[in-house]
Amino acid sequence: MEVGMLPISASKRGKLLAAGYTSLHSISRASASQLATDIEVSQDEACEILKYASQTSALDPSIGNSNTSNLYGGQTAWTMLNEEKFSTRITTSCVDLDNILGGGITCKEVTELGGVPGIGKTQIGIQLAVNVQIPLEYGGLGGKAIYIDTEGSFMVERVLQIAEACIEDMSEYSNHFHNNVQDCEVKMHPNSILENIFCFRVCSYTEQIALVNYLDKFIEEHKDVKMIIIDSVTFHFRQDFEDMALRTRLLNEMALKLMKLARKFCLAVVLLNQVTTKYIEGSYQLTLALGDSWSHSCTNRIILFWNGDERHAYIDKSPSLKSASAAYSVTTRGIRNSNSSCKRIKIV
Amino acid sequence: MANKLIKQMGLPNSIANIFTARNIITAKDALSLTEFELMEQLDVGMAEVKSAMAHISEVVCPPCQTALLLMEQRVRDERSAGHLPTRLRGLDEALCGGIPFGVVTELVGPAGIGKTQFCLKLSLLASLPENCGGLDGRVIYIDVESKFSSTRLIQIGIENFPEIFLKKGMAQEMAGRIVILRPTSLSEFTESLHHVQVSLLQKQVKLLIIDSMAALVLGEHDCGASRQQALGWHVSFIKIFTNSNSSDKSIRSHSIKKEDRAAYDSHLVAALGINWAHAVTIRLVLEARSGQRFIKLAKSPISPPLAFPFNITSSGLVLLDDDGIEMKGSEINTIHCQGQKALFNSEW
């Protein structure tokens, strides 16, 4: 085990190596005062180094930790299976799309949606921001949403339209299943849906990174946020970025932070991406923007495209979903099934 | 926001001094490095870096607003920050009132189809007093190709609003609110954008028209990456001050001809490429098909893609049908052009 793995400053690391502490094992065997005199730091700093050393060595199986299920932050696959079975998903309001997604957008994962301009990415984003608020009685999560708008395409009038349509659908649904008229009344008002969407307007990549850093604190204060939508994650990283290697590093760090947020607070993160042309195998093709290393960062990747006159969604990458495509349409009420494939109204 | 000095953010002095010592002065400098890199450069532990970055991020982060608040602001400021009605009933209905404030709208079309006519009428409408449905504000018209014709502007004014324009001195006042800038190169354009930013705050500019973007760039760069980069900065700049000043923008774009061997009509492609297409919020495509001109609402977050047939008369653009035809699939973004003859057949 390397001393280089400790999250301490470079000069302290240098001092440890110079004093002969080359492995974590040797550090953890020393006492705090011994360490303090050997590397000439204060007692508090020596205690901190010891603490880091013992935490890191707990992850190393070669040190012989027999109780493997309570490793620092680890979980067994069995506990995770139970969690996955009962996790609620956020519907997209289009039955075909929900089917290929296994029920909807999953929490604790980062999903990326990309497509050509005008295909409906912002529409799906707004629909999800409304659908995450569907109450538990109707199969939703009853949570709030954070909408991060980098392009200025968030139009409140459209959110109101979709919110009103969602409430109408919910009352229709309860009409089918409840005999008692009083039960049918949906207690939501479009304004309360609007109130539960937190919007941030980001004007540069610095603000975008700052916001992702700040979200940890924000969500601690608003624990019922269950959905973060970034529309679009690409925009500010495409304009005047001279150092591409830096861009890759910043994007990777941002992706890791988002993944951490998704797991920690058990929410869904949806990133909307743009397309760019790329020279592959002798011709120019459309691919999602931000490059190849970004394409590894998200858990699920869905590509939206035109198939003749219909809009389709295709699952490009997912650890648990089968590669499939489904048609959807954008209507005045939001995202719905495409007309040609719908022969009957399906009651979910 | 990104250029805020770290010294002024209220960090504890010890860490603030370390930042300055390593030449990380603004928030942008700090956020452009990953946390690991910061740890290396500042020579402090990870925990300290994390808490300093959390503090900086909170300060730099944009403010949070709920969608309800945005809606109420929209309704309240409808007059000064809502929509610019275009007087084309079908288009205004589709756009929920007219060209919205705070977003970038693009007009694309082949030569001679009516883009400048539309822009002239819009600048007139913005300068009209409020009781006639105007914005009572100033207009800045950046005219790259020297297409602005004051005579034609006054003619449109007289045809549409005879009661105002035939009054003494009114024509002068209306025309006096429109300022025309004529940059001849991209660098001059950049400079004029900077000047515009200053005057936007002082005077009551409600509309900024750039006619046309492609003309500036086509002369100077070859296709592809360098052109995208050159425009990249402009796109984000325009978007940012569009939003912060709540005036609205209309940008025209040229089209280049791309011959399609199989078809009779030649198909055109918008000149600035797909990166630009993502950057605009609303896209109006003007085209001619079988002798009839159409204005298509190709990209809009509020309405489905609709095409309206129109003609150009002495009073500007006139829609022949207010209901619009809905388009699907690839039709939305293609631009039809039927050769030069059909397009010169206008009636004024």
Q: Could you characterize what this model shows?
A:
The complex is a heterodimer of chains A (348) and B (348). With 348 residues, chain A is of the alpha/beta class. Chain A has two domains: 2-74, Orthogonal Bundle (DNA polymerase, domain 1); 82-337, Rossmann fold (3-Layer(aba) Sandwich). Chain A is 41% helix and 21% strand. Chain A has a nine-stranded mixed sheet with strand order 5-4-6-7-3-10-11-12-13, with helices on both faces. In chain A, helix 11 runs parallel beside helix 13 (244-265). Chain A is globular. Residues 62-69 and 342-348 of chain A have low confidence and may be disordered. The longest helix of chain B has 21 residues, at 225-245. In chain B, the strands form three sheets. In chain B, strands 4, 5, 6, 7, 8, 11, 12, 13, 14 and 15 form a ten-stranded mixed sheet that branches. Chain B has helices spanning 13-21, 27-31, 35-42, 46-60, 67-76, 78-81, 89-94, 115-127, 150-160, 162-165, 170-176, 186-202, 213-218, 225-245, 273-279, 339-343, and strands at 64-66, 83-84, 99-100, 104-108, 138-143, 178-181, 205-211, 248-253, 255-258, 266-270, 282-289, 292-299, 306-313, 316-319, 325-326, 335-337. Helix content of chain B is 43%, strand content 22%. The termini of chain B are far apart. In chain B, helix 12 runs parallel beside helix 14. Chain B has 16 helices and 16 strands. Chain B has 348 residues and is of the alpha/beta class. The interface between A and B is large, with 69 and 69 residues. Strand 5 of chain A pairs antiparallel with strand 1 (64-66) of chain B. Chain A: GO terms for molecular function: ATP binding; ATP-dependent DNA damage sensor activity; crossover junction DNA endonuclease activity; four-way junction DNA binding. Chain A: Keywords: ATP-binding, DNA damage, DNA recombination, DNA repair, DNA-binding, Nucleotide-binding, Nucleus. Chain A: This is DNA repair protein RAD51 homolog 3. Chain A: It is found in: Nucleus. Chain A: It holds the Pfam family Rad51.
